[in-house]
Amino acid sequence: MKKHYVLILCIALSFTFLFSANGDLSLQINKNLNSKQSEVLTKVDELKEMLIQNKSKTVGTLVDSVVYFGNGEKNSWNYTYDENGNEVVSISTKKDETGTTTYSSYKSETTYSNEGYILEDVSSSWENGAWEYSSKEIYSYDDNGYYSDMLAQKWDSDSDVWIDTERMLITVDGFNFILIAEEWDFDSEQWVGIVRMTMIASTQIDINAIENWENIDSELFELWDEDSGDWTPFSRTNYTYDENGNLIEQFRQGWFPDTGEWIDLELDTFTYNENDQVLIYQYKAYSMWTMDWYLNVRGTNTYDASGNLVETVDEEWNYGTEAWENIGKFIQTFDSNNNRLTLTIQFWDDDNQVWEDSSREMFTYNGNDKVLTRLKQNKNWGATEWQDDTRETYEYATNGYLNHYTCELSQGDGNWVPWSSNDAVEIEVIDREVYYSTELFVYYNDALTETSIENSDIVADNFSISQNYPNPFNPTTVIQYSLPNMNFVKISVYNSIGQKVSTLVNKQQIAGSYSVNFDGSNLSSGIYFYQIIAGSFQHSKQMLLIK
Fold first, then answer.
1. Using omega within 30 degrees of 0 as the cis cutoff, is the peptide bond preceding 257 cis?
2. Is residue 349 within 8 Å of 328, Cβ to Cβ?
3. 307: burial class by Cβ within 10 Å (0-12, 13-18, 19+)?
4. pLDDT of residue 160
C-alpha cells in the first residue's frame, strides 16, 4: 500500500528551484555558493517585488496594537503614525505568557519623502535599559518612484557610526534589466559582487516593462567569482508564451563548473482551456543516468461555470508500466458568492485502486463574505469517519477588519483546548501575518487618514467595480471602480484558499471613477479574488493569473 504526501495546489510543483533528478549534479552546482550568495538567492522573490513597489507603509484604518499568544509566549506590536498615516515607529515585544518577563524587544523607525516613499528604515533592539541601533536600510528612487538602489548598514557600537554592509543597484540597458547585489569587503575596502540578475526582453524596455513582465524572455543569475574577479554563470530560465500571452513553457538550466557547460534541470509546460485557464501542467526533470528528459508529475485541473478551480488531479509517470498513475486529488466547493466552503485532499490507494480521504477543511462566512469559522478534520488511514482536528474562529470590528482570533485543538471527546496554529493569520490593515497563535487581538484607531486623494471629473451614480482587464492576465491587470460619494475604500486580493496576497487601495477617496493596477509577478498561477469595501458597499470578483 502506498500513500503519497503531496501538496496538490495548481502549479506548486512547477516552481522548485534547481530540483532535478541529477542527484549529485545539483549539489555540485550549489557547492560553489558561499553563505552570502545562498542568502541572497533565497531573497529573489523579494528583490523582484522591490522592483515594482515603493516601500510606503501608509494605511487608512490605523492599527494601534496587536497582541497574540502562542507557544507559551505573549507577543505584541505597537504602532505610531505621522499626520499622513505613515507608519513611523513600530515596536515588537516578546514576553512570557504572564507578561512579566521580557525576552526581547525591537523597534523600527521609518522616514519618508514628500511622496510617501520610504527613505530610511532604522532597526534597534532594547539592551541594558536603552534602545541600541542594529541596522539601517537607505532607499533611492527614480523619477517614476521605482527603486534605483538600496544601501544596507550596520551600527558599530564601538565607534558609534554606521558602516556600509550591502547594496543593490538597478540599471536598464536597452533590452536588459540588471540587478546587482554587492557587499562591502572590509579587507580590500571596496564593493564586491554577490549575485547579478539579468532579465532580457523581446522589446526594448524601461522600468515599466519589468513591472508588466510581459516582455521578459529569459532570466540569468550569476555569482561573483573571487578567484577570477568576474561574474560566473549559475542558472538561467527561458520563457515561451502562446498568442494570448499565456506561459506555455519554462525551461531551466544550471551551470556545471566542472565541465564549463549548461546542464538541463527542469522543463515545465502548460496547456489551457478556452478561457485561458491552466488545464494541464506538467513537470519534467533531466536525468544524468539516461541523459534524457523523463516525465515526473503532471496535474489536470477542472473548473466550474464560475471559473472556480474545483478539482486538481496529480499523477506520476510509472516507468515500469509506461503509464500515468494517480497520486493525489484536491477538491473544492464554493457557494454562490464564490466563497470556498470545503477543501478536501485525497490520496490514491494503489492496493484497492480507489481514492481515500485524507483531510478536509470547512468554512463558514458572515454577510460580508468574511470567514467566521474554519474546521479541519482528518481521516486516519482506513478510517470511515472524519475526526475533528483544529477549529479556528474569527471576529471582526465595526470597520470590517479582524479583531479577535482563536485556535483550538480537539481532544476527541467533544472538548477543545487552546492550540498554536501552524497557519498564518492575516492582519490586513498592516499587511502582517501571525504564526503559531492560540489567540490574537487587534486594536484599531478609529480615525481614518486621508493619504492621497485622487481627483476625477467623472462622478458615478452608484458604487461599482468592474471585471479586471485583461483576464486572464500575466502578470498585470487593471481593476476599475466607481464611487458616488466620498468613502474610505479598501481593495484587497486573496488567493484561492482565502489568504490575502495584496492590498491595492486602503484610503479615503472622493466621488469619481478610478483604476488600480494589480501585479502578480511574485505569485503562482491560479485563481485569485479581489474585494472592494467602501462604506456599506462590498463586492468580490475573481480573476485568473496564468504565467
1. no
2. no
3. middle
4. 95
Q: CA nearest 489: which of 468, 457, 516, 471?
A: 516
Grid cell listed for 118: 520610504
pLDDT at residue 381, as a whole number: 67
Cα separation, 255 vs 367, in Å, equals: 54
170-212 pLDDT per residue, tens: 877 767 788 898 999 999 999 999 889 888 877 665 554 455 5
Residue count of the chain: 547
pLDDT digits (tens, 9 = 90+) for 12-23: 222 222 222 333
Mean pLDDT of 221-237: 91
Dist. CA 372–CA 364, nearest whole Å: 5
Separation CA 92–CA 122 (nearest Å): 14
pTM recorded for the entire structure: 0.69
- pLDDT grade, residue 59 (50/70/90)? very low
Is the Cα dihedral 59, 523, 330, 352 positive or negative?
A: negative
Beta bridge partner(s), residue 292 = 287
- CA-CA-CA-CA torsion for 521, 524, 527, 531, nearest 10 degrees? -50
3-state SS class at 37: helix
What is the spatial distance between Cα 528 and Cα 308, in angstroms, rounded to a whole number? 9
Cβ(217)–Cβ(204) under 8 Å?
no
Phi, psi dihedral angles at 250 (to 5 degrees)? -135, 115
pLDDT, greater one: 205 or 475: 475
Tell me the pLDDT tens digit for each residue of 300-335. 999 999 999 999 999 998 888 889 999 999 999 999
> How large is the C-alpha radius of gyration of the chain?
25
Domains observed in the chain:
450-547 (2.60.40.1930)
Q: How many CB atoms lie within 10 A of CB 40?
A: 22
Give the C-alpha separation, 296 to 477, whole Å.
33
Closest of 330, 451, 519 to residue 530, by C-alpha: 519
Nine-digit cell at 359? Answer: 483531510
**Rounded mean pLDDT of 28-54?**
50
CB atoms closer than 10 angstroms to residue 362: 17
DSSP state of 28: H
Amino acid found at 414 = G
Rounded Cα distance between 325 and 347, Å, is: 11
CA atoms within 13 A of residue 487's CA, in its CB half-sphere: 25
CA separation for the pair 29, 37 (Å, rounded): 13
